[in-house]
Amino acid sequence: MRCGIKLIIAVACAALPAIAQTYSATHHVGRTPTAGEIAAWNIAIGPDGRELPPGHGTAKEGASIFEEKCAVCHGKNLENPPFAPSLLGGHDTLTSVTPVKTVGGYYPFATSIWDNINRAMPLNKPGSLTSDEVYALTALILFRNDIIKEDEVMDAKSLPKIQMPNRNGFFPENPQYKRGYLQLWFWPEPRPQKKTNE
Amino acid sequence: MANKHERRQFLKGGAVALGLVAAGIKSAPGQLPQQKYETDVASSLSPAGPPVYGVRSHYETVTRAAPVKGKPFDSYRTPLHLQRGIITPSALHYYVGHGSPVPDINPEEHRLMIHGMVDRPVVLTMDEIKTLPFVSRILFLQCAGQNYGMAYQRKPGGVKTVQQTHGDTSCSEWAGVAFSTLMRQVSPQKGANWLVAEGAEWKKHAASIPFEKAMDEAIVAYNQNGEAIRPENGYPLRLILPGVEGMRNVRWLRRLYITDRPTMNAWEINPYSQLRPDGKTRWFDWDMEPNSVITFPSGEQQIPGPGDYIITGLAWTGTGAIGKVQVSTDGAKTWQDASLHDPVLPKAHTQFSFPWRWEGKETIIQSRSIDEWGNVQPTKVETEKMWNVGPDFFGKMNQAFPHYYASQPWRIGPDGKVSNAMWD
C-alpha cells in the first residue's frame, strides 16, 4: 500500500510536479481551538492537578452547598445516604468479605474527587457547579473523612498535595504498558508475547 | 417471559435448521403451509411497498435483556444463544450505562477536539473526519464487569441464561479513522505517553489509555456494521480499542487529550479495578483475557432427549486470535478440541462447535479457550487457586469485580433441562 503510494508520487513527481502536491500523508483539516475552548473542555484532572482551574473553597463553605445540592442523595451531613454511595467510613473494610470502597477509605488521589464532582455531580445537573463550589465540596468530604482541617483552603496548589489514606493500596505503582508484552491482570508484570510451540 | 420465548424459538425450528438435532424432534403435525395469495399480492402491490429503511419481520421478537433489578448498572445484554456467525446486529449490541442517559447528538454540531501535548491542536467536524483515510475491522467488545455482583447472581432467580451470564459482549464491524492517522495531523510531542479519551454525554465518561496502544490499533469509529453507530453505542463517534475492556472504548467521543500520565478518574479507580483479599487493588487493565461460552445447550434451554447434538459456542480474547477451544462434557475432568469456524479473526468473536452424544445422564458441560500465545481460560477452581482464595470468595463478592472470566459450566439435568452451575 505504502509502496504503491510512493510509486504514484514518484511517477507524478517526474511527470507533473503539480499533481504530487495533491496527496500528502498529513491532511490539513479542522481548525485550531482557542485557549478558552480548550480550558472549557479540559476537565480530566491528573494526580498532579495540572489541569485544575483557578478557584478555592473550604469545608465550611462546602457544608451549605452540600445540604442544598447533595444531601438529598448522599444524606444530611453526609450520613445515612438514602440513594448514593456513602461518602464516609469504609476505612477498615478493604480486607473483609464485603469491602466498602469510599472516597476517604479507597481513593488514592484527592484530585479524583474534584474530577468526579465537577464532571458528574449533582446527578440531575452534572457540570453545573462552579469551580469554587467543587473545591468547597471536595474540602468538605476530605474534612469529614479526617483528612484535612475544617478551615483548610483547597485550591489548585493545595489539593494535589493531600495524602490519601489508601494512596499506596494500588499496584502496579505506575500504570504502564509495554508494546509487545501481554498484560493480564493475574500477572503482576507484563510478559513478552511468545507463541507456543505445539 | 423471555425464557418462554427462547424455548419456543428453539423448538420451532432454529435447532433443526442448524442441524443440531438428529433424533427426537419431528416436524409440527399438519400440512405444508399454503401460500396466501390475497395477502401476499396485497402487500406487494401496497402503495407503500417495503420500507425504505428495513425492519425485521414482525414474527421476530428477540431483544436485548433488560437491566436486572437490584443490579447497580443498567446493562442491556446480547442474546448470544441466538447468534449464528460472529456479527452481532447493531440493534442487539450490548449496552452498559455509566449513569448518563443516551445523549441525542446532532452530528452537524458534534466536534472532536484533539489537544494537549501536540504541536497542532485541532477541532474537527464530522464531515472533516470523514474526509480522512479510513480503516475497518471486525472486533468484539466486552464489558470488563460482565460478572458484576456475583453475590447477586447466585440468588434464586438471579442469573440463569447465557444472555444473562455473558451477554455483555458483542462483535461488530467498526469503521472510521485510525488514531494514528489523526496523530499525524496534530504531531504529538516527545513524552506524550497517554491518551485521555472523553465522551460528550452528561457525565463525560473518560478513560486513560497508553498512547502506544492507541497508536497501534485504536480507531475513531463512526460506522458500525455498515451504517452510522447506533445512539446507545456512541453516535456519532466512538473510540474503538481492539481487545481492551469495553469502558475504555469511549462512546460519544468528543475529546482526545494527549498527556504524559493517566488522569485516574473515579471509574478507573473504583468499579474497574480488582480489590484483592489482602486489601491491595490491581488497577489499569487493558486486554480482555481468553474467554468462551457454550451457547447451545445453555442455561434454561431444554434438550428434547438422549441423542446426537452439536455443542456450539463463542470464544474471544483481547490478546489476539483464538488458538484453540476445548470442551469438557464431564465436569472439567477431560477436555477435547472443538472445531473453530471461519473466520478466526484477532480480537473478534470466534464460533466453535463440538459433536456430542447425550446419553440422558446428568452431567456438566463447559468450554475453555486458549489464545494464540497459549494462555488458557481457567475454570472457577483454577481461578480460586490463582487468587489463593476459598470456594466462597467470588460467590460472596458484593461489589464490582471486573475481569472474572472462569469457564462457564452448564448442568444438564437427567430430564435434559440446562442450568447455570457456576455457583453450585
Write the layout of secondary structure elements.
The complex is a heterodimer of chains A (198) and B (424).
Chain A: H1 2-15, H2 17-20, H3 35-41, E1 56-57, H4 59-69, H5 71-74, H6 110-120, H7 131-144, E2 154-155, E3 170-171, E4 181-182, E5 191-192
Antiparallel strand pairs in A: 1-2, 4-5
Helix pairs in contact in A: 4-7, 6-7
Chain B: H1 2-18, H2 37-45, E1 75-76, E2 95-96, E3 111-116, E4 122-125, H3 126-130, E5 135-142, H4 150-154, H5 162-166, E6 169-178, H6 179-186, E7 194-199, E8 206-210, H7 211-217, E9 219-224, E10 227-228, E11 238-240, E12 253-259, H8 266-269, E13 274-275, E14 281-282, E15 291-296, E16 307-316, E17 322-328, E18 336-337, E19 339-340, E20 350-358, E21 363-371, H9 380-387, E22 410-412, E23 418-420
Summarize the structure.
The complex is a heterodimer of chains A (198) and B (424). With 198 residues, chain A is mainly α.
If you had to describe this structure to a student in words, what would you say it looks like?
The complex is a heterodimer of chains A (198) and B (424). In chain A, α6 (110-120) crosses α7. Residues 15-21 of chain A have low confidence and may be disordered. Chain A is mainly alpha-helical and 198 residues long. The longest helix of chain A is centred in the N-terminal third of the chain and has 14 residues, at 2-15. Chain A has helices at residues 2-15, 17-20, 35-41, 59-69, 71-74, 110-120, 131-144; strands at residues 56-57, 154-155, 170-171, 181-182, 191-192. In chain A, a hairpin with an 8-residue loop joins β4 and β5 (191-192). Chain A has a two-stranded antiparallel sheet. In chain A, strands 4-5 form a two-stranded antiparallel sheet. Chain A is built from 7 helices and 5 strands. Chain B has 424 residues and is α+β, with helices and mostly antiparallel strands. Chain B is 16% helix and 27% strand. Chain B has helices spanning 2-18, 37-45, 126-130, 150-154, 162-166, 179-186, 211-217, 266-269, 380-387; strands at 75-76, 95-96, 111-116, 122-125, 135-142, 169-178, 194-199, 206-210, 219-224, 227-228, 238-240, 253-259, 274-275, 281-282, 291-296, 307-316, 322-328, 336-337, 339-340, 350-358, 363-371, 410-412, 418-420. In chain B, strands 4-3-12-7-8 form a 5-stranded mixed β-sheet. In chain B, β9 (219-224) and β10 (227-228) form a beta hairpin. The longest helix of chain B is centred in the N-terminal third of the chain and has 17 residues, at 2-18. Chain B is globular. In chain B, 48% of the residues are buried. The chains are: A mainly alpha (198), B alpha+beta (424). Chains A and B meet through α3, α6 and β3 of A and β4, α6, β8, α7 and β12 of B. β3 of chain A pairs parallel with β14 (281-282) of chain B, so a sheet runs across the interface.
